[in-house]
Amino acid sequence: MNNIQFISKTVATAAINIQKTVQLLSEDCTIPFISRYRKDVTGNLDEVVIEQIAKLQKEYETIVKRKETILKTIDEQGQLSVELKAKIDHSFDLQDIEDLYLPYKKKKRTKADVARENGLEPLAKIIVSQGNDDVDFLATQYVNEAIINEDAALQGAREIVAEWINENIYVRQQLRRLYQRKAVVTTKVVKSKKDDEAAQKFTQYFEWAEPLSKAPAHRLMAMLRAEKEGYIKLKIETDIDEAYDIIDEIIIKKQNNTTPHLQLAIEDSYKRLLQPAISNETLQDAKTKADANSIQVFANNLGQLLLAPPLGEKRILAIDPGFRSGCKIVCLDEKGDLLYNETIYPHAPQKEEAMAMKKIRSMVNSYKIDAISIGNGTASRETEFFIKKIAFDKPVQVFIVSEAGASVYSASKIAREEFPDYDVTVRGSVSIGRRLSDPLAELVKIDPKAIGVGQYQHDVDQSKLKDELDTTVVRCVNSVGVNINTASKHLLSYVSGIGEKLAENIVKYRSENGPFEDRKQLKKVPRLGEKAYQQGAAFIRISNAKNPLDNSAVHPEAYSIVEKMAKDLKLKVTELIANKEKTALIKPENYITTEIGLLTLKDIIKELEKPGLDPRKSAKVFEFDPNVKTIKDLKTGMILPGIVNNITNFGCFVDIGVKESGLVHISQLKAGFVSDVNEVVKLHQHVEVKVTEVDEDRKRIQLTMII
Q: Which of 144, 157, 371, 450 could form a disulfide with 124 if both were Cys (CB 3.0 to 4.6 A apart)?
C-alpha cells in the first residue's frame, strides 16, 4: 500500500487530488496557501481536508519508519521468515504490526523464560499440539535440579503456553473487539481521601460504572483526573467468562488429556498477561479519542475567540478594574500604542469617585477617546456602573472585555519587550484595550491554554494540543490577513510561509526603512526568499499601497491577469476594484492559464468586488442586567442577557454579569436534544437565558437558553 492509497481510505476525494496535495506539501507549500491559491490543483479541497491529508501523510511515514525498525530488529535476531516479513510489509495497522513484533520484542526475564531455561519448552509444545498424550506421566521426564516434581514441570510448561497465547495475534484481535464492544469503566473511592475538600467535585465518581463506549469524553476525562489526583481507583473490565470462551474457541481444537492444562494456561494468560495489557490498551484508546474530542472543542473555541468582532482602529481607554489596588487606566491610539497611563480609586476603601470621574473625563477629551474597554475580572461591574455615570461631551461606547490571559501576557517576555519601562499592571491594561480593537492581533501573543476556553486542556496530549492550536491560529490569521505596517512580529510569525525568524526580520526592516509601500519590498527583507514570498505575500495587506491589489487577497502571481481583465474592459485596475457592475462583465473562462484555473479566477473576481474585506463582524456593545451584580441577586425564573464565554461537549457557560458563569446544559439549549453545542451557539454570542437553579454555597448557576 502506498501513501496515496493509505490516505484514500480516510479522505473521500479522488486519488489525484490527494496526490497533488501531498506533492504541494512536500514542496513546503503551506496549508493556507494551498487551500486558497491552488484550488485548481487540489480539486478545491478546503483547509480542513488538506490538514487531514497532511496528518495522514505523517501517520503513514511514522508507520513505514516503525516497520523498518521492527524488520531490522527481527532480522538481526535471525528470525525474519519470508512469511513474517510479508505480514509486516502488508500491514498498515500499527497495533497489528506491534502484535506481530511482540514475540521478538526485548522484555524483562519472564516466567516463561525461566521455564525454557529449565528445558520445559518441549513439554509446552506437547500440550499445545493437543495429541492425546499422558502429559502428567511425560512431565516426570522433565524433573531435574531446578524442577522438583512433575507438578512444577507442568506449571512451567503452562507458563510457556500462556506466553504463546498472549502473543497470538488473533487472540489479541478478538479480545480487543470484545473490550471495544463491552468494556465497562468502574471506579471506587479511595477511602482515606474521600473527605478531602478537593475530592468533593468528584463525588459522582466515588462509586461509578458505565459502558466505556458510552462514556462521553468529558466524563472519562473527569474520571482520569480524579484517579490522577488520587481520589478514586479506575478499572476497565469485561465479562471474564466471555473472554475465556473467545480464547478457548481459538486455542482448544479438541477435548483430550491436554485440555485441562490448556484451560489452566488460558486462565493464567488472560489474568496475568492479556487482561492487564488489553484493558490498558482499551483505556488508552478511549483516552486518545477523548483527547481528540477535547482538543477539537478547544480549537473550535479558540478559532471563534480569535475571529471575534474587532472594534477596529479606534482610540481606546482601557481599564483593568480593582478595588483596594485601584483601577489601572491606559489610553491607546488607533494603532494600539500607549499614550498615557494612570491609576484611579473610585471604589472602596478609597472611594475617590469625584476625582476619578474628573480624570476619566479629562483623558477621554485629551486623547480623543472613541471607546472604553473594561476587563471582566474583579470590580468589573462596579467599574462599568461608575463609567456609565459620567457625562461625556461626546458618545463613548463602553465594552466589557474578557481579561483571560491578560495577566499571563503582562508577565511574559513578549510584554517586557513591548513595554520595558512599564510594570505588569500597565501591560495588562494595554492587553485589555488592544483585544477590543483587534482580538486576533492581541491574543496570538498569549499561550492559548491561558485563555480559558477549553475543557481538560491540561490533561490531554500536550504535543497534539499544541499542534492543533497552532494550526487554528495559522488558519485564523491567514483568513483575515495581516497589515504588515502595524502587525507585531508575533502576529506576522503566523502568516503563511513567514515564521518566527522572518517575522523578526520584517519588523527590523520596517523600523530601519519605514513602512512597506508594496508587496515586492518583502523580497528585500533579509533571508526572505522566493518561496517565502510565494507562500506569504497574498496574506499580507498594505493600505494606501502603490498597487491597490497589495491591499487585497489577490496573489501577486495573478496581478497580470487582473491587469488584462481591466484592459479588456478599457479600465484602469483602480477603476475595476470595488466596481461590482464592471466585475460582473468579466468571463473568468477567458483568462484561464496553465497556472491559474477557473476556481482561482472566480475567487479573484469575488475579491475585486470587495477587496481586503475583513471576514469578521463588527464589535457590538453589550449590557448586563443592571440589577444583577452578584450571585446573591439571582432568583430562579429570572430572564437575563448574557454572553457565551465557553463551550464544552456538555453545554455552554454564559457570563450574566456576576463573578460565576452559569451553565446551560446541552439538553437545555433548545426544545430538542442536540449532539453538538456549536450547532446552536457560538463563543461571544449575545443570548438570553433563564435562571433555573442557584447554589450559592457551591457557587453554581444552572440556566436554560431562550432562543
A: 157
Q: 129 and 157 in contact (C-beta within 8 Å)? A: no
Taking a C-beta distance cutoff of 8 angstroms, is the pair 648, 663 a contact? no
Which SS3 state, helix, strand or coil, does residue 585 take? coil
- CA 398 vs. chain centroid, Å, equals 32
pTM listed for this prediction: 0.88
Angle at 455 between CA 452 and CA 456, to 5 degrees: 110
pLDDT tens readout for residues 313-331: 999 999 999 999 999 999 9
Give the structural domain span for 603. 549-610
Alpha-carbon span 647 to 659, nearest angstrom: 18
Q: Please give the angle made by the CA atoms of 148, 151 and 153, to the nearest 5 degrees.
A: 65
Domain membership flag for residue 472: no
Taking residue 287's Cβ as centre, other Cβ atoms within 10 Å add up to 17
Count other Cβ atoms within 10 Å, centred on residue 371. 22
83-102 burial: b if 16+ Cβ within 10 Å, else e: ebeeebeebbeeebbbbbbb
Q: What are phi and psi of 694, to 5 degrees?
A: -130, 125
- Grouping H, G, I as helix, E, B as strand and the rest as coil, residue 587 is coil
Cα–Cα distance list, 551 to 509, 546, 548, 577 (Å):
20, 10, 6, 11
**How far out from the chain centre does Cα 501 lie?**
25
On whether residue 476 sits in a domain, the answer given is no
Is 356 within a domain? yes
What pLDDT was estimated at residue 670?
64
Q: From residue 521, how far is each of 510, 533, 537 by CA, in Å?
A: 10, 10, 10
Q: Is residue 458 part of a domain?
A: no
User: What is the domain-level CATH number for residue 63?
Assistant: 1.10.10.650
Q: Tell me the β-bridge partners of 651.
A: 648, 665
Which residues make beta-bridge pairs with 208? 187
